[in-house]
Amino acid sequence: MSKIQFSVQVLVVSNLEQSRAFYQDVLGCEVNDWWAVRDDFRLGFKLIEAKSTEDIQPNKIGNGQEKVWDTYSYVETHHDLDELYKELKCKGAIINQEPELYDFEWGSWKEFSIKDPDHYIIAFGSGKKNE
User: Fold this and answer.
1) What sequence ranges are listed for the domain VOC (predicted)?
2) Which is nearest to 117 in space by CA: 40, 33, 41, 56?
3) Which helix (H) or strand (E) is 115 found in, with range?
4) Helix/strand number for the chain, H first, E second
5) pTM of this prediction exceeds 0.70
6) Domain 9-51+67-129: which topology?
7) Is 117 helix (H, G, I), strand (E, B) or coil?
């Protein structure tokens, strides 16, 4: 079976230059004409300017969901997640969800989310198994 190297999410945006600036300056991505990527494509987007604002459609909340996300990314530890939160907040990210910690039988899950200029929700989470 062939191995997939990486994937990117395609986002239709209202203002390409504004989105490029957000993904570079706030999210810390390397941005060029084709991509906005961070951490060797572990987080990647292809930004395409919309023909009209009606074409911009962030996800709606799904059946059984309490939160809506357009992108969900994982980081290794809760410490890494806390550091990423501080980094993004200092760069002016619009915080959609403050960091929340959830306890489960297997361990804990922690997550937060930010909002881009077109209201796409980008969430970040980390898990910690009980020892």
Assistant:
1) 5-127
2) 56
3) strand 107-115
4) 2, 8
5) yes
6) 2,3-Dihydroxybiphenyl 1,2-Dioxygenase; domain 1 (3.10.180)
7) coil
